[in-house]
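Hello,

Following up on my earlier ticket. Below are the two sequence lines again, exactly as submitted.
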Amino acid sequence: MSTLTLKRAETQAPLARSDNPAQPFRVAGGLVDRTRPLSFRFDGRALTGFPGDTLASALLANGVRLVGRSFKYHRPRGILSAGSEEPNAIVELRTGARREPNTRATVAELYDGLEASSQNRWPSLAFDALGVNALAAPIFAAGFYYKTFMWPAAFWEKLYEPMIRRAAGLGRAANAPDPDHYDRMFAHCDVLVIGGGPAGLSAALAAGRMGARVILVDEDSRPGGRLLAERREIDGRPAADWAAQALAELASMPEVRILPRTTLFGVYDHGSYGAVERVSDHLAVPPAHTPRQRLWRIAAKRAVLAAGAIERPHVFGGNDRPGVMLAGAVRTYLNRFGVLPGKRIAVLTSSDDGWRTAADVLAAGGTVAAVIDTRPSVPAELRRPVEAAGGRVLTGSFVSGTKGHLALSAIEVSDASGRFDQIACDCLAMANGWNPIVHLDSHLSRRPVWREDIHAFVPGTLPSGMTAAGSAAGDFALADCLSGGARAGQEAAATCGFDGAAAPAPQTDPESVSHTPLWRAPRTKGKAFADFQNDVAVSDIELAHREGFRAVELLKRYTTLGMATDQGKTSNLAGLSIMAELTGQPIPSVGTTVFRPPYTPIAIGAFAGHHRGKEFRATRHVPSHAWAEENGCVFVETGLWLRPAYFPRKGEADWMESVNREVDTVRAKVGVCDVTTLGKVDIQGKDALAFIERVTANPFGTLAIGKARYAILLREDGFVLDDGTVARMSDSHYVMTCSTANAARVMQHLEYARQWLWPELDVQIVSISEQWAQYAVAGPRARDTLKGVIDPGFDISNEAFPFLACADVTVGGGIPARLFRISFSGELAYEIAVPAAYGDAAWRAIMAAGTPYGITAYGSEALSVMRIEKGHAAGAEINGQTTARDIGLGGMLAKKKDYVGRLMKERAALTDPQRPILVGFKPVDASQRLRAGSHFLGVGETPSLAADQGYLTSVAYSPSLKSWIGIGLIRGGTERHGERVRAYDPVRGGDVEVEICSPVFVDPKEEKLRV
Amino acid sequence: MSEIATTSSWRPRSAWAGFAKPGRQGRAGAEPGVILDLREGIGLATIILADGQDEALARALSERFGFAPPAPGAAAFASGRGLVWAGPGQWLAVAPSRADLAGFGEALAGLAAVTDQSDSRAVVRVSGPQARTALSKGVGVDLHPRAFRAGSAAGTGISHIVAQIWQLDDAPTYELAVPRSFAGSFWGWLTESAAEYGCEVRGLPR
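Thanks for your patience. The regenerated structure is below:
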């Protein structure tokens, strides 16, 4: 059935060899720019190439065939492929901070000054000491990790693991931070075309001509796919010309975006796709303000999968020797890069396709030593030109072994009758059919299906909105790629509502896809590799079969087949087919393993993008931040907020001295603290009070205008959600505050209650957390200080503005402000809120007004010390596991109203009298330090879970008491004041005898609060 | 509130202060690809519909602004004053100054809850030939003119920061509002995203 025509091979004059002695394997032709040689280094050796080369093509042009050492056996390895599937030519690129390990030479674009080095060899590539591993191969067989290094166990961490890591480690990561930046981009389109080969270009043209928004992604620097690699004709012109013209037309369409150097690495739900664009990887250093790489998140209504196919190697002894390559890759190096990968090239094929390699080599003036076809007979028109050129043709034969020290020098050929032959050659091109790239369509847990007629897996049910075209769909003929792609593009655009018919498919030269795969050589000498990158040989698969690891997922994990960074692109089917043969099953019954993103390795920097270092996540600044910074404040990260922690002054030895001074100053004079981070909620509407009654657990019905009240919010399950205050500003206008940590959570809870629980209530709520800067002014001189800030005319005397009053006032000469007389410190205290833009001015005004009274700024540390001194519960106590009773607020709960959490808090476990309850603790020896998290045990009791009575939730050094103090939850605490227990902290070696006491350490009669 | 500027000696501090520097940043060249105008001193207020007052509120807003409250995903502007849809029954009123919103709450009493938000957001106007591309680095919403045009609005997240975006004209010119406390992190993202195209910052923060 073969109709493959090799006429061009017969008629075309042999091309002249390059006279460039520096690149002895460079021949004429190809798409490289010969006017501008580039210099580069490989393992320190100076070499040259041309723009348009990859590192691999440039190495081959220079005659460098040994490129790396294999993972496990340190076998010499060369270049297998010409694409992103490369398992062998894995190198380190660049130096210093930009050093990048494990890159594939086949996709690394050459630039002037590129420095590359081989990996996994010591001391040198040609002489690798660990090559002795190959001699010890029997112990490195499948499952060796599981069988060896098992004992003595203590040897694992110190000896075995470091040894294995050194022996098997691939590249070395850079030691310095990445100096480049990475970018992110969202994109939307009607039709996403994945792959810019014949099918992809046709699809993009069809959809683009109809006016659809099209994004075409191609992983190569130059879209075109196999059109750039094959000597084919489209409409009578070279295929590469057709590709160039198609690209030019696409570039002229305003709604078409072409993304070269972009790998579509993942398919996600609802038509969303991940891609990475290598913006500057082809340059030594990215130009200023240009990212190194850009991560694209693409939302597409439809997608055309035109990702192409990957050629399959043959499996025979020594198939990994440098010089053994994929037949299609040989054509790529020849036709696209003008590089003939060998002086005497042999071809091993099971398809008509492989004969193209022979034809192209002859056309380029190269020597074809032999073509070995595994099929019993081959049409005369295929054989004729090879034989005419003096090449041998062996049918019904296979390669059973290879020879050569660090690279191929000869192959051994056998046939069914046992005839044996040796043929000298330095390059063997393997053609064993192609596998459609089914990775991307399988990312959403779909499985590919086997097509017996083409001996390959093809996409099964595709993700919604996706169609496959061209060789990705199993249509390997160029004519089918062009017509199938155009059809898919037209249909995709039509589904998005665009009109237009596909143009007639262009004509191609005749072709044949006749193919009968040979899964492995029937007889062979030496290790026959299925997976090159992970050094998995046929013998390993046989071992897995013998030991019962036959299911495909077990085979994978036991042998590590397909688990290398190439995800088994060239190896998976070899492994499956051999297991099928061993178990006597058809290939589809063996099945496939799961394909997961990313399709090729993606740098973590591309995912991080802008979000590295200080930009890892957003930072929120308080309105007094500028003043705090000017005054040497030490900040603390609480959630996203950067809060002032304390304000050290000259001569203060450590943080505690500063915090003590701040506390003492507040208790004796006055202090100001930025509490803007608290959540603030505006509640309005006819039913505002009814709403507040239902979300708070304490009664509110009697709250007068101009009054504020402490508020407890419960979750629906009866635990405490948060606490805060509610202030009534006018008849139907309330302001709720809540804790910093729970600000978003409370807002969410309120919206849920408003929208879902009681949509019938006429209530409007909105966050005003960002609108108001809010400062706590606390201490005996707080009122005096505020008198200097609040405009004259507002009476804030104790009589006119008592504890828990609130009012609208103005400050600074007419600026609206809100004043609340509430206290977290236990002192005479106010919170004053001003519009956030005036927050900076207000802070400075308060500091100025308080200077005569000795004011101090205080931070979150002093705030925390004072609330512990007062026994106020905060985040450590309201931790999602405590009830109102647990934290001493049981008495405040409303008896006569319904509210969120009312019934659920009555569950037996939540009302158990034995539940730990909040009390205070002080060390018996006042000099001893307490540690939060310490658990309580009876004095003299042996530590055990059963003996555990509770734990210390918060501790502080109290400058007021000159002792450490703590509050915590302990069983029956309220009745145990005066009793002694141990605060036991085995993690930090703490074991302190403490006395149970009231949680209110300072001013228990609240005499300071109401003056 | 209209009296603030004239009677107070206190100076407001820009949300962008300490982060934004006026002038040219990023790639040099003749024309900046992105122009960032810091919007200072504007008035903002949340309007939330009271139960059953849809029609009355629409009438009142039409009288005041000259246009009906915009539908979901839309914004409407006239003479520098506008309404940006912000959620079901919610709009963000935008005015050239705080003073423009004085008495607004009283005017809509019973029809809607009006809450001053003039200080709650950092607002920046983004224009220039690469405005759309630069914003697409963080805006997940489709900004293509077939999907988002003058009069379009969206609530979204940019660089992990909640944001509102609306488009003023077909140039295109956008305005973005982010919570005030996030201004520094947002500015870092915005200027880094625009640097590739050359970026001009206008409107000196006070």
